[in-house]
Each structure stands twice: as C-alpha cells, then as structure tokens.
Amino acid sequence: MRRQPLDSSAIAAAGYDAATAVLELEFSSGEVYRYFAVPPSVHRALRSAESAGRFFRDRIRDVYPSQHVR
Length: 70
Prior knowledge:
Elements: E1 4-5, E2 11-17, E3 22-27, E4 32-35, H1 40-48, H2 52-59, E5 66-68
Antiparallel strand pairs: 1-2, 2-3, 3-4, 4-5
C-alpha cells in the first residue's frame, strides 16, 4: 500500500485502501500497523487533523482492530 507523508512527530506516513477499508500507518519509530474496518471519513480526518498523533490516540488506536506489519 502506498503511504503519504504526514506532518507529525508521531506518525511518519499513512496509506488507505478504500476497497478494503484498511488504514496503514508508519510511525516515526519505523513500526508499521494496519487498522481494519476504518471508514474513509476517519482517514480524511486523520490527514487533516491539527495533531495526527492525538487524533490517532483518541479515534483510532483502541477503536479498530489492528495488525503489526513490521
């Protein structure tokens, strides 16, 4: 999945596949996680959030099932 850079100290890049509703996040640490059943509106809100790290913590981290990729 192609990821686009984010202006964030916590999250380096985010990618989204609308066909499968999978959000892929690459953190500044280099870790990559996939989040499942994420609506397109959440991806759009993440990309436009004033703080992507805070948005992730509040609206994604403990809400959607995830898988550690690397």
